[in-house]
């Protein structure tokens, strides 16, 4: 697996050798950072506008301080989120999406819109499944 390729290589038309289905592919942990419970919600929250830590924590209901910090660190390391420290007293830190983060957040947004639109069907399917499972028990 060639792990030296960059997104610029993809833009140039070169094939990537990464395969998320391969056990040791480095894209797997990145996918987890993006699609994990908190990563995707942080990306969507930052899609609206840049935010400070506590503002993000309020926007993403239910996230603990520890999980938000871990998620932001992973997304920053992966290049989806930028952390900017403003030299004020006290220092002010703001998080925003990078261009890659913006592209990814838009794709997640489409998936979320699809999911929300499909929820009546999903709920009916869950009810049918649960009813059939209860009948078999």
Automatic annotation (TrEMBL):
<keyword id="KW-0805">Transcription regulation</keyword>
<dbReference type="InterPro" id="IPR002577">
    <property type="entry name" value="HTH_HxlR"/>
</dbReference>
<keyword id="KW-0238">DNA-binding</keyword>
<dbReference type="InterPro" id="IPR036388">
    <property type="entry name" value="WH-like_DNA-bd_sf"/>
</dbReference>
<dbReference type="InterPro" id="IPR036390">
    <property type="entry name" value="WH_DNA-bd_sf"/>
</dbReference>
<feature type="domain" description="HTH hxlR-type">
    <location>
        <begin position="25"/>
        <end position="123"/>
    </location>
</feature>
<keyword id="KW-0804">Transcription</keyword>
<protein>
    <submittedName>
        <fullName>Helix-turn-helix transcriptional regulator</fullName>
    </submittedName>
</protein>
<dbReference type="GO" id="GO:0003677">
    <property type="term" value="F:DNA binding"/>
</dbReference>
<dbReference type="Pfam" id="PF01638">
    <property type="entry name" value="HxlR"/>
</dbReference>
